[in-house]
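**Protein of interest**
===
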Amino acid sequence: MKKNTSGPRFKALLKAANITTTGFAEFLDTAPQRVHNWYFRGVPAHYMEEVARKLSVNSEWLRTGEGPKDAKHLRLLDESGNTFDAQAIRGVYTVLEPVDVELRFFKEVVTAPGSGKTHVVEDSENLIRLPRSHLDSLEINHADAICALMSGNSMAERIEDGSTLAIDRGLTKIIDGEIYAIEHDGMLRIKYLHRLPGNSLRLRSHNRDEYPDEIFRAAQIEEQNIRVLGWVFWWSTLNKRRPPVPFL
């Protein structure tokens, strides 16, 4: 694969369209500094198609400088329903609203080599995109949504090991029987939560045959640094068995 040299072309396109990095970042729902860095590092691969579409250029030309520049197949609708080519209206450029939201990714990492102690931190190199409509339909503030990975089979067969999870940090109040992400003394765990008398808490796994309920009293919750990160509202699950094709 040829090297991504999109930085200078991306910068020139924004300049021609009279769009600042701050303004363009708003349409991508990301940080202006991140967009500014693309001038030097190039547009990341996971953004390439969307950026090219918004700037009405071919993604391959944007990435490598090769091939036709203009994407004549990208047609946008104006207010009267007529089509126009965004490339031809640079002076009054209008960017389409993004249909996806980029979510930060968190993971459990060891605090020090050989310590066995972990904590939950942001992985700045990974981002997950979800349809904006998913969050809007659940009235989730986009800034409150983060992602993480399901580790282990305690929630199987509902959430399989390795599934990507989306978590609403704006909902940390426990609603009995809902699935939450919690940090338990630095460990990232996904469980059904139930409130119990005396400010106690019950953690329940979907796979109850292998993982019995855990009950923590108020003092234990404090001692073991148990905190609710947020409500799990979405997850991806890979089917781990490819069905055989009959009659081959």
Remarks:
- Helices lie at 7-16, 21-28, 32-41, 45-54, 59-64, 132-137, 218-223.
- The chain has two domains: 7-92, 100-235.
- The domain at 100-235 is CATH 2.10.109.10 (Umud Fragment, subunit A).
- Residues 73-97 have pLDDT under 50 and may be disordered.
